[in-house]
Amino acid sequence: MAENNRAVLKLKEKFAASIIDVVEFRGEVTVTVKKDSIIEILSFLKQSLQYNLLTDLTAVDYLGKKEERFMMVYLLYSIPNKDRLRIKTPVTEEECRIPTASTVWKTANWLEREVFDLFGIKFDGHPDLRRILMTDDWVGHPLRKDYPLQGPDREPYKGRLS
Amino acid sequence: MATTETMTLNMGPQHPSTHGVLRLVLELDGEVIVKVTPHIGYLHRGVEKLSEHRTYHQILPLTDRLDYLAPMSNNLGYILAVEKLMGVEVPERAETIRIIMAELTRLESHLVWIACHALDIGAMTVFIYAFRERETVMEIYELISGARMTSNFFRVGGLSQDVPDEFVKKVSDFIDVMPGYLDQYEGLLTTNPIWLKRTIGNGIISAEDAIDIGLTGPALRGSGVDWDLRRDNPYSGYEKYQFKVPTGENCDTFDRYKVRLVEMREACKIVRQGLDKLKPGPVLADSPQVCYPPKESVYNSIEGLIHHFKIASEGFPAPEGEVYQGVEAPKGELGFYIVSDGGNKPERMRIRPPSFVNLQAIEQMSVGTMIADLVAVIGTLDIVLGEIDR
């Protein structure tokens, strides 16, 4: 199924060396690619395959579960063709940065600020990389798995006392 | 030598026209806006972080606190994502009631929008009228779920309970009178010279720019893009319903106003079709791995009690994988992206809030206009800060 996806066919043709993995789950196609060519691939998908709407951009923290700690997720939608495609790319903790996608879609501006704020991934070339949800002087990145749920400097919740 | 320089003005977070706790730092040249810098996050509650520590059933009450003006749309998006992940089939009656409620929610949300939008621009009467009708929707909410706003009525696999007998009559009566009320609002606004002067030509954004910046929902359709998830990627049985998708031409606030008004009329029609389709039947899927057992069995049998206890305390393990489900919420595309590692809690739950992405367009839509026009732009974007800040 996933092999017949119009985007997967084209990507395999053009960026064969960059594709790490193609998965289909519940009818949704996910393509994992290498970080080096991410902007090239995203621009190609937008220009040539009409994925004109960047629905969402986010990250996942796989602390201790995967070799590369973070996974960037780009969720694309094509308004003319009405289909979705998910592009993922791994980001390591040591080199916690990735080129910005805001050059491809303006939508990415705030979404990348949010990922920077909550995960601490830096975006090279971003026009305005500031925290967005947390205050400017906040320490730490709350959506990282090693950030405690109750916040720093507080005892973990131990359940009801009575 | 006289010099001119721009002035920086702080608007919000406590400002009646910012619809909550939105803070805008404006750079002004006289009364003309040179730059708008939104500051958000005052309502950040860490819903995405919290979700990683709760079972799938326990996340549900968090979701109706996102867009608190359209709680059932949020619930719907979330449960559809979990059902997709679990592969649960939902009974037809539950799907129909979900659609009726989702459309009533759209009406409710648009009623608050028209009320506040008109109030911001100076038409107070509409505010009073629209809140009167919203009250009826709230009563329907209260009738079926016991709560007026944080409904928490849907469940993974169906509904928490069947609707009471008077539900159909109450909804039907409301849908009968609602188009007349919409005519009233239109009578107050559509030909009102002040309304026209304030909205025509305000907040223009071309279709191309709107897609580039990620606008969805009525804000995008106002710019002439004919795209609606309910029709183009149907979910929860929307393919069985007939409705029109309105679009605008002039990409301005007035066109977005007209689009939303047509959407309200279409919502009434969808609810009517839903009521006609409503047949007796179960409202919860027959998948004991995922769903709560019926209350009679919990109260009267030890097996039912154990079953309830297990679902409530442990939840259910989800297969490893990741799903995204987008729904056409009143404000745009609301999406839930769930990554599961095979446990009973999500590895990551991402909410794609429509208001957050739509608010980004505020700068493009208001630079070069007056402060008073900015107020109209905030109204036409129809933002809710609970959803932006999460």
Give a brief outline of the structure.
The complex is a heterodimer of chains A (162) and B (390). Chain A has 162 residues and is an alpha/beta fold. Chain A has three helices and seven strands.
Tally of contiguous helical segments of chain A: 3
General shape of chain A:
globular
What do the pLDDT scores of chain A average to? 86
Instruction: Note the main sheet of chain B.
Output: 3 strands, antiparallel
Say how many strands of chain A there are. 7
Topology of chain A as a string of helices (H) and strands (E): HEEHEEEEHE
Proportion of helical residues of chain B:
40-55%
Could you tell me the radius of gyration of chain A in angstroms?
18 Å
Oligomer: heterodimer
- The whole-angstrom Rg of chain B is 22 Å
**Which overall shape of chain B is indicated by the principal axes computed on the Cα atoms?**
globular
Low-confidence stretches of chain B: none
Query: Proportion of β residues of chain A?
Result: 25-35%
Structural class of chain B: alpha+beta
Head-to-tail CA distance between termini of chain B? 50 Å
Largest interface: A-B, 37 and 39 residues
Helices and strands of chain B, in order, run as EEEHHHHHEEHHHHHHHHEEEHHHH
Strands, helices and their partners?
The complex is a heterodimer of chains A (162) and B (390).
Chain A: H1 6-14, E1 19-25, E2 28-33, H2 38-49, E3 53-61, E4 70-78, E5 83-91, E6 97-99, H3 108-119, E7 122-124
Parallel strand pairs in A: 2-5, 6-7
Antiparallel strand pairs in A: 1-2, 3-4, 4-5
Chain B: E1 7-11, E2 23-29, E3 32-39, H1 47-51, H2 56-63, H3 71-86, H4 92-121, H5 124-145, E4 154-155, E5 158-159, H6 166-189, H7 193-199, H8 207-212, H9 218-221, H10 229-232, H11 253-277, H12 295-300, H13 302-314, E6 321-329, E7 332-340, E8 348-352, H14 354-359, H15 362-366, H16 371-381, H17 385-389
Antiparallel strand pairs in B: 1-2, 2-3, 4-5, 6-7, 7-8
Helix pairs in contact in B: 2-3, 3-4, 4-5, 4-11, 4-16, 5-6, 6-11
